Amino acid sequence: MTQSTMAAGSRLRIARTRGALSGLLLVVLGAWAALVPFIGPYFDFAYTPAPNLAWMWTAERGYMEVAPGVATVVGGLILLFSTSRVMAIFGAWVGVAGGAWLILGPPLAGYLSVDLGQPDPASDLRVRTLESLFFFYAIGAAILFVASFALGRMSTHSVRDVRAAERRAAGFAASEQRVEPTPITARDTVPPAEPVGPVTYERERVADAGAYERGRVAEPEPSGPEFAPGQVATEGRLEPESRVASREKDIPESSER
């Protein structure tokens, strides 16, 4: 793996814990922004219409409160589990959009012909102020701050990212190493032994040696059709003995002389 490949990999990969805290905070803040209009009436903290009725759905609440809250939760989950720098940056931008949506929604509601309602008129001024802040402005600002912080962290290339990339490159190189082939030993290169000749050939040699010791030289085998090894050895041994016997008959005995 080349240095350029390692550098590119370190720029595109991050540790999973890099955006874990920011992602967790975005999930909590987004869940609050999406659920507070429905659970607020349980503790006298609600907007009109029907400030005393929990879990009341309206299209305006869906557009201006539930939608940015869900977007913030999705961005936080991406930051929480992603190990890709590109995906983490995308999740941070989704969180930024959700926070900006909550901040800019109430001022733009009149131009968009959307009725967001008002804080509960039965509450005092302090409670109505807190309702405006924790339904839109304060929660939107907190989401925007956390998402912007996460976006800055995801955009920087730190020393920790380089070290993580080096560890991944070392592990990849170790997995690519191949096992060396087993060397061939001398035992594997020894040629096979030649087959042992027939036993009759050894017997022929022993018979010829005995003929030489007795002074009887065995004559060469006559040319002709091929014989089996045992047959040739027997005829070669009997032929000299018959000739010697005929010669002994031709020689006169000493008494007759």
Explain this structure to me?
The chain folds into two domains: 3-172, no CATH class; 199-250, no CATH class. It is built from nine helices and no strands. It is mostly helical. It is elongated. Residues 230-238 have low confidence and may be disordered. The protein starts with a helix and ends in a 7-residue tail after the last helix. 65% of the residues lie in helices and 0% in strands. Helix 2 runs antiparallel to helix 3, helix 2 packs parallel to helix 4 and helix 3 runs antiparallel to helix 4 (85-109).
Average pLDDT, all residues: 76
Strand content: under 5%
The largest pleated sheet is described as: none
Shape: elongated
What integer value in Å does the Rg equal? 53 Å
Fraction in helix: 55-70%
Helical stretch tally: 9
What is shown here, in short?
The chain is mostly helical and 257 residues long. Helices cover 65% and strands 0% of the residues. The chain has nine helices and no strands.
Features:
elongated; mainly alpha; 257 residues
What is the topology?
Elements lengths: L2 H10 L7 H20 L19 H23 L3 H25 L15 H31 L3 H18 L9 H4 L9 H15 L15 H22 L7
